[in-house]
Amino acid sequence: MAVKIRLRRMGRKKAPFYRIVVADSRAPRDGKVIAEIGTYDPNTDPSTFHVNEELAKKWLSNGAQPTEVVSKIFKHAGIEK
Q: Hey, what's the signal peptide range on this chain (predicted)?
């Protein structure tokens, strides 16, 4: 089972809010998730995010692959592979 760390869209129309989740790569974007490890809000200036570093490092060490946007968020949070 390939596991990805990606964004799950929440919020209302034209006002997105995202949760950083761990999910099976075959699951739909807003479908079933394994774990929620943080949030990302692009509507604020500057964008805000909160990441549970302990869980993020655990999933990265277990082989979960972050998407491009999540990799950038992790880089700003100081979380490296």
A: none
Question: Side by side, which strands form the sheet with 48-51?
Answer: 48-51, 35-41, 15-24, 3-12, 65-66
How far apart, in whole angstroms, are the C-alpha atoms of residue 54 and residue 56? Answer: 6
Sorting pLDDT into bands at 50, 70 and 90, what band is 81?
low
pTM over 0.85: yes
Q: Residues 16-34: pLDDT tens digits?
A: 999 999 999 998 888 899 9
The two tokens of residue 71 are: 């990799």
